[in-house]
């Protein structure tokens, strides 16, 4: 704000979640409207229908732990360093994803829930014999990861089918997960859908995604006053454009 005031420049505020969503427009093959976007990170697991720039319809969200939060908590239980997501991803590559039949909270809505899965993993770890714990940890990681990925992919593409869209986008820190990227690509190919996922460096928090979201807001005539405040927790809301 100080730079804008000193140089007489316009100020454009950007919602962090919108930044993640607009990172998909920086992908090699960006989505076309309308599309369904899964924003999946440490703090959010939101499924959003996007018919055009700045218009968002929330289809589903997490009821408890976000997917990234579940990865971090399970990673800690596995004895892995923070952040747990990338560490679980690496450990899971050495394990059997079918070894433990962890629960999948699919349900009848587009909402997500990972607390039950997290609890099942913790109980499984408690029951592992100490002498074989290290041997079984990769299998626990792989089975947990597979359960999360299956729920994310199932709900995202089912929503896309129900809303009649052919374009799907994934973004947020968890979108860097190798198994999620592969499973989403497999499902998109099977359904004949177009999938947009940012490169790895654009999945985690970065300045480029904020700049992209800000640029699109600016191009649509949106800017803010110097009295704009900072909010630590914002929901994704549609732009206040004339005509809806």
Descriptive notes:
The structure is a single chain. This protein has 244 residues and is of the alpha/beta class. The protein has one domain: ATPase, nucleotide binding domain (Nucleotidyltransferase, domain 5, 2-Layer Sandwich), CATH 3.30.420. Helix content is 44%, strand content 12%. The chain contains 9 helices and 5 strands. The protein has helices spanning 2-7, 16-23, 67-77, 84-92, 115-127, 133-162, 178-191, 200-203, 207-219; strands at 35-40, 45-52, 55-61, 167-171, 194-196. Helix 7 links the parallel strand 4 (167-171) and strand 5. The radius of gyration is 19 Å and the shape is globular. The mean pLDDT is 96.
How many separate helices?
9
CATH fold label: Nucleotidyltransferase, domain 5
Number of strands: 5
Mean pLDDT: 96
Q: What structural category characterises the helix and strand content?
A: alpha/beta
Would you identify the regions where 5 or more consecutive residues have pLDDT less than 50? none
Helical content class? 40-55%
Helices, strands, pairings?
Blueprint: H1 2-7, H2 16-23, E1 35-40, E2 45-52, E3 55-61, H3 67-77, H4 84-92, H5 115-127, H6 133-162, E4 167-171, H7 178-191, E5 194-196, H8 200-203, H9 207-219
Parallel strand pairs: 1-4, 4-5
Antiparallel strand pairs: 1-2, 2-3
Helix pairs in contact: 2-9, 3-4, 3-5, 3-6, 4-6, 5-6, 6-7
Q: What is shown here, in short?
A:
The protein is an alpha/beta fold and 244 residues long. It has helices at 2-7, 16-23, 67-77, 84-92, 115-127, 133-162, 178-191, 200-203, 207-219, and strands at residues 35-40, 45-52, 55-61, 167-171, 194-196.
